[in-house]
Amino acid sequence: MTTAAAGSPRTYQVRTYGCQMNVHDSERISGLLEDAGYVRAAEADEQPDVVVFNTCAVRENADNRLYGNLGHLRPVKAKHPGMQIAVGGCLAQKDRGEIVRKAPWVDVVFGTHNIGSLPVLLDRARHNTTAEVEILESLEVFPSTLPTRRESTYAGWVSISVGCNNTCTFCIVPSLRGKEKDRRPGDVLSEVRALVDEGVLEVTLLGQNVNSYGVEFGDRYAFGKLLRACGDIDGLERVRFTSPHPKDFTDDVIAAMAETPNVCHSLHMPLQSGSDDVLRAMRRSYRSERYLGIIEKVRVAMPDAAITTDIIVGFPGETEADFARTLDVVREARFSSAFTFQYSKRPGTPAATMDDQLPKQVVQERYERLIACVEEITWAENRKLVGETVEVLVAVGEGRKDERTGRMSGRARDGRLVHFATGELAGQIRPGDIVHTTVTYAAPHHLNADGAPLAHRRTRAGDAAEAGRAPRTPGVLLGLPTIGAPAAAPAPTGGCAAT
């Protein structure tokens, strides 16, 4: 394929790495480009006119992955004059002009604070035939003011804040995303209503630390109030949130989860380590007793709650006794799933200069033991659901083997992945529809339901999926006094969930 012919719209492709915040930021990037007249390239198109990399800087191999992908595009671009490559996200915020130095065929580098500048930077780079690097130190425009091309007809991300006030020694994100800025509740709710009006059934409230929501306007109970307010929105069937921080977790949030019918009984709460000494070195201002106490309160209020977490293995100075304590907490917490990571040294973080960096083989061996422990528990927890009826919101892309097995997939209310047989309803169930089915088999990471569905409800989200429509929301201001006149319409933002 050649680049866009004169008069035809230029095509684009966004490649996203990292957390939910980045996925949501990519929806904004797509919305911006389409507002500027670009058209999304077909999936099979190996040479769009513009390729945008929305990067992550959390993992150690993020740099290698980016530069490897940029290297693969170099000969493609050389054969297609006019093609442009842009790099944004956390790695762009961190590496800045270094990206163009290492990969001089890149046309635009933009940071986490100026996503809205991308179309202008692309135009300027094309006009000047030189790379444009623009990295701001603070937000130019809140992401929620930007148009959005939503990827799902049935589920939507809604940012309640951007940035982070924590100082975890392993995390580079606060320095790249800035201090926490909170949206006003009315703006969040208007965006949620706009999504529901488009047929969306489920929203996930996003923040680097959702529990500290309200710090900007002096209300430490603001997050619980927001959850309850979501319960008053007609047509909104599921509310999730990520990620909370144990240090800010209040009993009021637990009560709001338990008392608000559309708030799902699922909680993703990062542990990071079960050792108090390691938590202290990580500058995580809670201890394992406090963490387990929150989980106990959640389970008293919601016995069916599914609790997931993040765990880092091999933090500098972690001893075998420290690691054993992490395994103890995992066994006591009974997580339904865990995202596990080997500690990765990130330049610019305090942990990167700490003594006692552990040998790779030690970290790997502990990591494998952690995985075995987690899977033993998640499998046991999932087996408890065999014979139970679950409500599944049918999804796209969750089941890689669905076509071969004749199943469809989706998420139960507690967030578990369910692969289900369609029976006589084959061809009638659409993504976004609701199915009730009985669990027949459990694995460590999913459930199977191989009997015929007990019930199937067609939804407006399913209608939209069948028609090939995805919600498109215009921008809505975060409602902060420093951002100027409020806008009349709604939409969201992004960030990283590894708090």
The overall pLDDT average reads 87
Please identify the structural class as seen in this structure. alpha/beta
Number of strands: 23
Q: Radius of gyration, Cα only, in angstroms? A: 23 Å
Strand content: 15-25%
Q: How widely separated are the two ends?
A: 43 Å
Tally of alpha and pi helices:
15
Low-confidence stretches: 475-499
How can the largest sheet be summarized?
Answer: 7 strands, mixed
Gross morphology: globular
The side-by-side strand order for the widest beta sheet comes to 20-21-18-17-16-19-22
In helices, the fraction of residues equals 25-40%
Give a brief rundown of this model:
50% of the residues are buried.
What does the model show?
- Helices cover 33% and strands 19% of the residues.
- By secondary structure, it is α/β, with parallel strands linked by helices.
- α8 packs parallel to α9 (251-259), α9 packs parallel to α11 (288-301) and α12 packs parallel to α13.
- The longest helix has 24 residues, at 360-383.
- 50% of the residues are buried.
- Mean pLDDT is 87; it is low at 475-499.
